Amino acid sequence: MASIHKDPRGKSPFWYCAYRLPSGKRGFKSTKQTNHQKAMVFCRTLEYASRESKAGRLTESRVQELISEIVLQTTGEPLRFYSAEGWLRDWLKGKEVAKSEGTTKKYKHTIESFLQSLGERAKRNINQISPRDIQRFRDAEIEAGKHPRTCNFAVKHLRMPFNVARRQGLITHNPAEAIEMLQTDNESTRHPFDLHQVSAILEEAAKIKVGKPTHTSRDWQGVIMVAFYTGGRLQDVTNLRWESIDLENKWIAFRAGKTRQRIKVPMHDSLHDFLLELPAPDNVKAFVFPALAGKRAGGKSGLSMAFKRIMERAKVRGEVARERTGKAGRTVNTLSFHSFRHTLTSIMANAGVPIEVRQKFTGHASADMNVRYTHHEVETLRSAVGKLPTLHV
């Protein structure tokens, strides 16, 4: 029968448990309790677990129940157990509230792919996920044709929920941190457009009709001009609302969907003239480009593919930066809608605009809702915009 005793040497303040091990030998273990009653609860549970183990009835779930019972009776707080699947899905739900839709989709894809790679192990306790599980998942992604940079992002995505689990005491080590990053080519796979290409794209966009008959190709032309003069990402520009446009003072201010940073930049005269010609809205919440607003970027019928078709008709072609390999790989071209960001910074850099000024246009401005610039900063930004060429539509 289990019993508790004080340290005969008098060196420890805790009660010790004397109990019978599954092998039949006597065990002597500290309860880490100074309270006699709590120490007895711990000791009896320990002996019960030993008997269950000897009888072959001590399953993982039963161990969790016993440990939870000890913690509840000694601390008054229930012990939380999470399966890998349960924890990762709960973490993902929290990100759906805090992050942009595009970022959340990337996290979700990584989590779902990882859980699929775990198979039945996904139902085990989160503390049983090992670096080998992460390594196996990463290697399978490489074999499927994913680029090393994409695989590195997947590992970084997995590090986040496991870090939270570690901070909450659910695990002692983050298994994803044991995985080294793959070497990648640091050279950018995106190139800027030249002015001839931008003009050709604008000209071809003028021939496109989208949506209802009343929604003309002016929407695509406007989206292209805003991207060229602000460096805005595709969905940020297509979902632009009139409340973001200050025609009187020639400013555009919006929150980037990917980074959640507030971007506020002055308008180029060409863009200002174009927006002045658009029908005045009855509601400032109305979309500036309604024919394209709300559409997803990816997929065969998405905005990215639609822009790619405009490029093809304009005979604007980039180079293949990466060939598709494997089932999950994809071909990457050096020219895409994202190239407008590179075009903006490239033109400004060649015109001698300092990097800290260029960063204001590409999303490194303050995250404050109300970005305020000094008079000198305003003049500096307007001077930078003035160095951009005039586009004709």
Description of the molecule:
The protein is mainly alpha-helical. It has three domains: 3-75, no CATH class; 84-178, Orthogonal Bundle (DNA polymerase, domain 1); 195-386, hpI Integrase, Chain A. The chain has 14 helices and eight strands. It has helices at residues 36-54, 60-75, 84-98, 101-118, 131-143, 148-167, 195-205, 218-230, 234-238, 269-276, 303-313, 339-350, 355-361, 375-386; strands at 3-6, 15-20, 26-30, 245-246, 251-255, 262-266, 320-322, 332-333. The protein has a three-stranded antiparallel β-sheet with strand order 1-2-3, covered by helices on one side. A three-stranded antiparallel β-sheet has the order 4-5-6. A two-stranded antiparallel sheet has the order 7-8. Helix 1 runs antiparallel to helix 2, helix 4 packs across helix 5 and helix 8 crosses helix 12 (339-350). The chain is elongated, with a radius of gyration of 30 Å. 26% of the residues are buried. The model is unreliable at 365-371 (pLDDT under 50).
